[in-house]
Amino acid sequence: MPRKNGELVFDEPWQSRAFGIAVGLAERGVFEWEEFRTRLIAAVRDGEGDPATSPATLYYRQWLAALETLLVDKGLVQARDVAARAAEFSAGERDEVF
Q1: How far is residue 80's CA from residue 86's CA, in Å, rounded to a whole number?
Q2: Would you kindly state where each structural domain of the chain is located, as residue ranges?
């Protein structure tokens, strides 16, 4: 995970939210951390990014992709709902997770 002086680095608020959601759901037993970790490894391995994107932003995009995939695979959310919410954020129609 991106760090500076031993502390996690978040370029934008959504990154810390995605981090917190994944950690919180794992702590509550919604999924095993290893399930998430496996998907994160795949997202990092398969991920492509703009060379101008900061390492933290690229990493947390991969983190979010892994989380979304896991939640869809577990049937906790529908892929179409994730896509619709992402489109709302991209269009500036939403700035809160819930």
Answers
A1: 10
A2: 29-98
What are the DSSP calls for 46-96, one per residue? H----TTS-HHHHHHHHHHHHHHHHHHHTTSS-HHHHHHHHHHHHTTS--S
- Helix, strand, or coil (residue 12): coil
Per residue of the chain (98 residues), what is the pLDDT tens digit? 788 888 888 989 889 999 999 999 999 999 999 999 999 999 999 877 777 888 888 999 999 999 999 999 999 999 999 999 888 877 878 766 55
Distance CA 93, CA 6 (A): 35
Q: What is the C-alpha to C-alpha distance for residues 49 and 18, in angstroms, rounded to an integer? A: 18
The predicted model scores a pTM of: 0.84
Q: What are phi and psi of 54, to 5 degrees?
A: -65, 150
Interatomic CA distance for residues 95 and 85, integer angstroms: 10
